[in-house]
Amino acid sequence: MSTDYYRLLGVARNAGQDEIKSAYRHLALKHHPDRNPGNKDSEGIFKEINEAYTVLSDVEKRRIYDQFGAEGLKAGRGGAGGFGGFQNAEFGDIFGDIFDNFFGEQGGRSRGPRQRRGADLKYGTEISLEEAFSGVKVPVNFDRTEICEVCGGTGAKPKTGLKKCATCRGAGRVQYAQGFFSFSQTCPDCGGQGEVVSSPCRDCGGSGRKKKAASLNVKIPPGVEEGAVLRVSGAGDAGMRDGASGDLYIQVTIKHNTHFTRQDSDLIYECQVSVAQAVLGAEVEVPVIEGGRVKLRLPQGTQHGKVLRVHERGMPSSGGLKKRGDLLVRVKIEIPHELTPKQRELFEALAVAFGETPLPHCEEEKGFFKKILG
């Protein structure tokens, strides 16, 4: 089975939700088993596009799929609910519309006003590595759609209320015949609600909702990783007709740190030492993420690039396998650019002791070349 969900639906990877929804509806109508009885190929395609839409219509699942592919979802990176299950709020509405398009409203039965879930919202926040280590509450200021306080979400002017739609007679859908089939579609006048506003609310213009500024303090847990997406349930746009509110998704970015580089739950620190310290061994102090410094013993003959490990001095582990990662100290040997006469004499003596012949050093020659080069 193909796992390229974008290709299955025939959309680009940067396609918006409306485009994905439209592509899915078109393909679902074409390959629905009731429209292709006994056709195993269409049945298989119908299952594939359902699977693709379930993932791409969900913000969190789509993010995981874009980063890890279908295998990442199967491995449980999608969190609770995983890969299976038609859990997206709009999926039932779409499937219901398709089913009605094939079989109509079963005797003209009224469905009544339809609830609609509010839209999800996205917000980005940037924190320091120290804040990612300890966890932090960050203020989130954003705009969201809320229920109009004047009309209570009905969209109607107070004391006027709603009236039954004359076009669909309150059913929310209208039917028509085409050949041997009877089709139904959403009522164009009431938008499927079965009711219309006779006198629109002046405060919201009849929509029942208004854009308002909102503010939340969101808790970011210790050990959060770069690019992690946190969900605040119900903090998105308000729904319609008592529909559930959408969710607020917060994507975390972590600022560059001058001391540490992060590698999963481990931290890497580059420690500069002198030639003498590397050769003879030494005790050095290195910083730790929670503040302060710890002492580290440098063995004799430490080579440039050697990595020393300080256990459980890294970041909190998000996987829960251990409490903290490690601090990895990478040794960088600092070679002096200039030497005093005494230091040079000692290095030359050391070179001779190792059986090496040091290059001659001539201050006059150095001065001569300096004059030539300007």
Protein architecture, described:
- By secondary structure, the protein is an alpha+beta fold.
- Among the domains are: 1-103, Helix Hairpins, CATH 1.10.287.110; 257-335, Urease metallochaperone UreE, N-terminal domain (HSP40/DNAj peptide-binding domain), CATH 2.60.260.20; 340-374, no CATH class.
- The chain is built from nine helices and 15 strands.
- The protein has helices at residues 5-9, 17-31, 40-56, 59-74, 89-103, 129-134, 275-280, 341-353, 363-372; strands at residues 121-127, 136-147, 162-164, 173-178, 181-186, 195-197, 209-220, 229-232, 248-254, 260-263, 266-274, 282-287, 293-298, 307-310, 327-334.
- The strands form six sheets. Strands 10-11-15-14 form a four-stranded mixed beta sheet. Strands 1-9-8 form a three-stranded mixed beta sheet.
- Helix 2 runs antiparallel to helix 3.
Topology (elements, then pairings):
Elements lengths: L4 H5 L7 H15 L8 H17 L2 H16 L14 H15 L17 E7 L1 H6 L1 E12 L14 E3 L8 E6 L2 E6 L8 E3 L11 E12 L8 E4 L15 E7 L5 E4 L2 E9 H6 L1 E6 L5 E6 L8 E4 L16 E8 L6 H13 L9 H10 L2
Parallel strand pairs: 1-9, 11-15
Antiparallel strand pairs: 2-7, 3-6, 4-5, 8-9, 10-11, 12-13, 14-15
Helix pairs in contact: 2-3
